[in-house]
Amino acid sequence: xxxxxxxxxxxxxxxxxxxxxxxxxxxxxxxxxxxxxxxxxxxxxxxx
Length: 48
Known about the structure:
By secondary structure, the chain is an all-alpha fold. It has one helix and no strands. The radius of gyration is 21 Å and the shape is flat.
């Protein structure tokens, strides 16, 4: 049989989101390329 376990609440007090942020020019270029590819895919889908 399955047993229920008591699980503690997750706390994110010690997670610093700024550590995962990268605003370099290269990353902005990469995200722009991904955005353009997705936009092109949506526009081709709409045109079809």
